[in-house]
RNA sequence: GCCGGGGUAGCUCAACGGUAGAGCAAUCGCUUCGUAAGCGAUAGGUUGUGGGUUCGAAUCCCAUCCCCGGCUCCA
């Protein structure tokens, strides 16, 4: 993206934020008028709209929205300009004191030495640093969406406030598009589709956050795993396999018992020793590295594993496949010499891009998180290593011409990283792949290799996950494709529907031949009408249907129906098999059949 | 974990102090049909769990588990 385009995008975002922030003020006014005793706190613009947090004796529900929206509309139509005014801290304090707004006074207390401004529209004034549209008149296309609890200043030690979320757009069309996207997202919800398509479940009796993969989901998982393993081997990784629990001494050594304790399951005592379920695979791969003396000739050593980890997540944060307590990471750790890091990072990025392309994602954003020199807090490792690693991360992306955002101070304490967010079919970002340096664990475990000159050196370590977690990636795939998976991932690729009982033997024979050709075929020979069988197959989102009636059998041809409704008659069996085998082989995301 | 909203048949939902119901799915018949639901019958529930109030509880109260929307965190 060039500089001018970036600037234009930035300015468009600013005016959108101004509209939304202004809408939040108007909502706050409406709410205070309609629900006396409500205290205001903060109300910013966010990615897709705005919110305002209130403390109120009234419990807000969605049933209150029509009344609030109606009042908002009246206020907006009142044609009030937003007027900013600089005030002294004393003035401001007096104003908020007189209005009985303790949260505003608390904010004021945090603004020592800064310029204080009040923004007023009509009869409503807010303590606010600004960023408003000119006039309430601009606020026309908005909708309140939900109400939720939120801690004052995001701290769970503070009181719980009530947050009302809304969205606002410059035009009706944009608002409608956004609302439609929300509906679309709801329809694609992987929890809903997971049940409808019988892919997975979460069982109350077994516990929250633990995933049961049903036959169809497990089939897809197998395909994802097989592809990834083959690709890893092709790229010079070694596949390893490690235990699910380990003695607490391992976690003491790695440091996880101190900095990751809240997320680990409790100890399991066995013969007077304590064990813990693994929340991460890193220490295990490190032990494999450390198991014998390594030479510089052994490097880079790339150890990969589909490693299942267990993390204690607080009950309120669990979410379908996206946030669970037991999941499998496609984890790898690369141990290398300093001069190899750029090549290794490039290999990881290349692999990640291959994953996106293969699974049908063409949009993504990358972020490089580095340390912040200004606040050299508790970073682990040598400054020279950090600088070299950060340079490698940026250099790899630049050389590939990949646009990225540099986020200073966002690095973990143990090293800088690249994070990749995928953009799905309806424009939502999902945090996926990550490539992270780790300067902490090699030190904690005293990792070494013998250099060419015979000296002992510390290897550099890179963590890397591409799917992130198989569960989560699966959830993203479900939502990205809305359950309409490409042929190569579809648990059932072809379903053969018999028109009458007379075609059952032919249907069975065809199913056998398709299976032998490496295709996943299913049969529907129930004594149902063809319309009913088609409907069921459509609801199962099966990519190809073969409808077998007396005419087809007589002519020795097939009638094909695609998931998108298109039909092709008189297709030779060989042609179907070859076309599908190829579509599967090259992992095509679109169906092969062209309208004749 | 916290705030709010919910758990009724495999699924989607109704009944909201007075004997628990529908559609789909399932099972059994009949129907043999040409591109999104053929007809009929049967079966299916100590209403998440435990306690309480009441002559009577799916419905009211308490506790607890799970789910949903958020907060916080994150793969």
SSE class: alpha+beta
User: Would you report the number of β strands?
Assistant: 28
Fraction in beta strands: 25-35%
Largest sheet: 8 strands, mixed
Helicity range: 25-40%
Q: Quick check: average pLDDT?
A: 93
Distance between the termini: 40 Å
Q: What is the C-alpha radius of gyration, as a whole number of Å? A: 29 Å
Low-pLDDT sequence parts: none
Strand order, largest beta sheet: 11-15-16-23-20-19-17-18
Shape: globular
Question: What's the short version?
Answer:
The protein contains 18 helices and 28 strands.
Can you tell me about this structure?
- By secondary structure, the protein is α+β, with helices and mostly antiparallel strands.
- Helices cover 37% and strands 26% of the residues.
- The protein is built from 18 helices and 28 strands.
- It has an eight-stranded mixed sheet with strand order 11-15-16-23-20-19-17-18. Strands 1, 2, 3, 7 and 8 form a five-stranded antiparallel sheet that branches. Strands 25-24-26-27-28 form a five-stranded mixed sheet, sandwiched between helices.
- Strand 7 (141-151) and strand 8 form a beta hairpin.
- The radius of gyration is 29 Å and the shape is globular.
- The two termini are 40 Å apart.
- 35% of the residues are buried.
- The structure holds one RNA strand of 75 nucleotides.
């Amino acid at each position: 993206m060039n500089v001018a385009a970036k600037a234009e995008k930035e300015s468009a975002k600013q005016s959108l934020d101004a509209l939304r922030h202004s809408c939040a003020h108007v909502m706050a006014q409406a709410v205070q008028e309609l629900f006396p005793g409500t205290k205001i706190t903060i109300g910013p613009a966010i990615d897709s709209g705005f919110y305002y947090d209130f403390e109120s004796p009234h419990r807000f529900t969605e049933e209150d929205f029509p009344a609030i929206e109606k009042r908002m509309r009246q206020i907006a139509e009142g044609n009030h300009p937003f007027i900013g005014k600089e005030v002294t801290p004393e003035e401001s304090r007096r104003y908020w004191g007189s209005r009985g707004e303790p949260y505003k006074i608390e904010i004021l207390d945090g603004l020592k030495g800064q310029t204080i401004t009040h923004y007023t529209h009509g009869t409503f004034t807010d303590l606010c640093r600004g960023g408003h549209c000119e006039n309430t008149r601009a606020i026309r296309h908005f909708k309140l969406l939900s109400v939720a609890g939120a801690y004052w200043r995001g701290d769970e030690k503070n009181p719980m406030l009530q947050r009302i979320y809304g969205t606002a757009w410059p035009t009706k069309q944009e608002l409608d598009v956004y609302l439609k996207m929300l509906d679309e997202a709801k329809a694609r919800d992987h929890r809903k589709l997971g049940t409808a398509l019988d892919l997975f479940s979460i069982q109350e009796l077994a516990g929250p956050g633990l995933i049961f993969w049903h036959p169809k989901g497990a089939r897809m998982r197998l395909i994802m795993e097989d592809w990834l393993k083959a690709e890893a081997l092709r790229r010079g990784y070694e596949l390893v396999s490690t235990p699910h629990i380990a003695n607490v001494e391992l976690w003491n050594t790695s440091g996880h018992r101190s900095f990751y304790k809240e997320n680990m399951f409790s100890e399991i005592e066995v013969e007077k020793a304590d064990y813990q379920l693994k929340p991460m695979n890193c220490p295990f791969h490190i032990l494999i590295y450390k198991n014998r003396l390594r030479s510089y000739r052994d490097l880079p050593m790339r150890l990969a594993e589909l490693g299942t980890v267990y993390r204690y997540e607080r009950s309120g944060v669990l979410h379908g496949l996206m946030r669970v307590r037991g999941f499998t990471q496609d984890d790898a750790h690369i141990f290398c010499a300093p001069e190899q890091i750029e090549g290794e990072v490039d290999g990881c990025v290349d692999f990640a891009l291959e994953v996106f392309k293969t699974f049908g994602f063409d949009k993504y954003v990358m972020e490089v998180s580095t340390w912040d020199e200004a606040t050299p807090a508790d970073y682990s490792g040598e400054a020279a290593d950090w600088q070299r690693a950060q340079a490698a991360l940026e250099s790899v992306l630049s050389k590939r011409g990949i646009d990225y955002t540099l986020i200073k101070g966002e690095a973990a304490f143990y090293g800088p990283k690249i994070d990749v967010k995928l953009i799905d079919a309806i424009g939502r970002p999902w945090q996926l792949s990550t490539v992270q340096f780790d300067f902490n664990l090699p030190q904690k475990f005293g990792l070494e290799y013998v250099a060419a000159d015979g000296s002992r050196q510390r290897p550099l370590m890179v963590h890397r996950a591409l799917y992130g977690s198989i569960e989560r990636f699966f959830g993203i795939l479900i939502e990205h494709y809305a359950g309409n998976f490409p042929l190569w991932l579809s648990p059932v690729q072809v379903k053969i529907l018999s028109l009458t009982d007379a075609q059952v033997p032919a249907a069975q024979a065809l199913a056998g031949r398709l299976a032998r050709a490496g295709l996943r075929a299913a049969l529907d020979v129930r004594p149902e009408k063809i319309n009913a069988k088609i409907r069921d197959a459509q609801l199962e989102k099966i990519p190809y249907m073969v409808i077998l009636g007396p005419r087809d059998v007589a002519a020795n041809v097939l009638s094909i129906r695609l998931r998108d409704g298109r039909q092709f008659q008189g297709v030779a069996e060989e042609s179907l098999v070859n076309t599908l085998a190829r579509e599967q082989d090259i992992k095509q995301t679109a169906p092969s059949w062209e309208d004749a």
